[in-house]
Design goal:
Blueprint lengths: L4 H4 L12 H4 L6 H6 L5 E4 L6 H12 L3 E5 L5 H15 L8 E5 L6 H13 L3 E6 L3 H4 L2 H4 L3 E4 L5 H14 L1 H4 L2 E4 L3 H7 L3 H13 L5 E4 L1 H7 L12 H15 L3 H13 L4 H16 L5 H16 L4 H13 L6 H16 L14 H5 L38 H13 L1 H4 L2
Helix pairs in contact: 5-6, 9-12, 11-12, 14-15, 14-16, 15-18, 16-17, 16-18, 17-18
């Protein structure tokens, strides 16, 4: 029993795999590809303990391909090149099943390490499967990301986590040797933070600590065996999301004290400085927007600064930005405007661009009326002339409604002077 429980009961095939039905269920987006062995290079993005590594192993097993594993924590460019060379050789000359290269925590790879993968993926020497807990749009270089499909793994729900425990009790030899009565699960689920691996390892710790064969699992028993102070801030679990939510809501609510408190909680918990700064960037546009456009500049400068400096000094910069955002005027008008516009696009589809707004680089396009009757704003007084810039089907629609603050009051007056029909209310 040297292996942890999570490793001992790791699923070997799709039938044993729990959750992620949108990917590997009966109608999952990956199910048919796996069964046919037509696997693209892909990135599996999801919280810790949701089955990314397990799914990569299953894909390799089901498609009967050579499988190579690298960890971004311990591997360098040299290791990547060595594995690629082995993969090229194992692929052989007469097989269409190229090897799979699985890279755990691919977001930790530097740009040069990710660059070293491009040729192998492009030429098909390997099928890359990367696993990440971070948004690949930020952490994976564009050239590599464009060569991969991104699949999102969802956090485990209560039913999924309980199913993991029941499966472990039924499958594992050590657990089968005990008479286990799973009376309560709330403490197990809470301490796991939605991480299946952590859940199983906590469960094994509780069972192993009991000397008798009959064991009744209760919340009281679990809490007595597990030191709660080890999970006061789990930057990969549920509290990670709860605290960042409290932080952003404090900024939105213009409370600098709440913002600094929740910021301190994240700092003391070892939260990634870029994660905190990235969320402030979003808030600067979503919650402050045009009420104070400088907020976005401030947040972006903060992101760049803390990415360079790191802890411990980054805490000062984060605090400065958090207080600035919290004490700034607020407006969600830009956020609401694009949301309304997206909703109209979903409802109306691909409406044609009016002829007078179309580009006309060729004579044929000009003959077809492209750009005809377009009125060049700079040819008119105040650089403005009333015109229509929306498709005919939604003419006159207003998406942007200026917020009630000093900056946007001025914007509203500007718009009223030009678009009286839309903003003279």
């Amino acid at each position: 029993m040297n292996q942890p429980l999570a490793e001992r009961v790791r699923p070997k095939n799709l039938e044993e795999y729990i959750s992620q039905n949108h990917l590997v269920g009966e109608k999952g987006s990956l199910t048919t590809q796996i069964k046919k062995g037509l696997i693209p290079s892909l990135i599996l993005w999801g919280p810790p303990g949701t089955g990314k590594t397990t799914l990569a192993n299953i894909i390799a097993n089901e498609s009967d391909r050579p499988f190579y594993i690298l960890s971004a924590i311990s591997s360098g460019v040299k290791d990547v090149r060595e594995v690629i060379e082995k993969a090229k050789q194992s692929g052989g000359l007469f097989t269409t099943k190229n090897p799979i290269l699985f890279i755990d925590e691919i977001h930790r790879f530097s740009k040069s390490q990710q660059d070293s993968l491009l040729g192998a993926v492009e030429k098909g020497w390997v099928t890359l499967i990367g696993a990440t807990t971070e948004n690949p749009s930020f952490e994976v270089i564009p050239a590599l990301l464009s060569r991969c499909q991104v699949y999102i793994l969802n956090p485990f729900g209560k039913e999924d986590l309980e199913a993991l425990i029941h499966r472990a009790i039924a499958k594992d030899d050590f657990l089968k040797s005990k008479e286990i009565n799973l009376k309560e699960t709330e403490a197990l689920l809470r301490l796991s933070g939605g991480d299946g691996r952590k859940l199983l390892n906590i469960f094994e710790l509780v069972v192993s600590s009991e000397d008798h064969e009959k064991i009744e699992i209760t919340d009281k028993l679990v809490l007595s065996k597990v030191q709660q102070n080890t999970v006061l801030y789990d930057k990969t679990g549920e509290q990670h999301y709860d605290i960042i939510s409290a932080f952003i809501k404090s900024i939105r609510g213009s409370d600098p004290n709440g913002a600094v408190y929740w910021l301190a909680r994240m700092i003391e918990g070892g939260e990634d400085v870029k994660f905190i700064a990235r969320r402030m960037l979003i808030s600067a546009s979503e919650d402050i927007g045009l009420a104070n456009p400088t907020a976005l500049i401030m947040a972006n400068t903060t992101f760049q600064a803390v990415s360079t400096i790191g802890y411990p000094e980054a805490r000062i910069i984060l605090s400065q930005c958090a207080i600035y955002l919290a004490t700034s005027a607020k407006s969600n008008a830009s956020y609401m405007a694009v949301g309304k516009a997206q909703q109209i696009v979903k409802q109306t589809g691909d409406l044609s661009v009016p002829l007078h707004l179309r580009n006309a680089p060729t004579k044929l396009m000009k003959d077809l009326g492209y750009g005809k009757e377009y009125q060049y704003a700079h040819d008119y007084d105040n650089n403005f002339v009333v015109s229509e810039f929306l498709p005919d089907e939604i003419t006159g629609t207003s998406f942007y409604n200026p917020g009630k603050n000093q900056r946007e009051n001025a914007i509203k007056e500007f718009l009223k002077n030009r678009w009286k029909e839309k903003y003279d209310t």
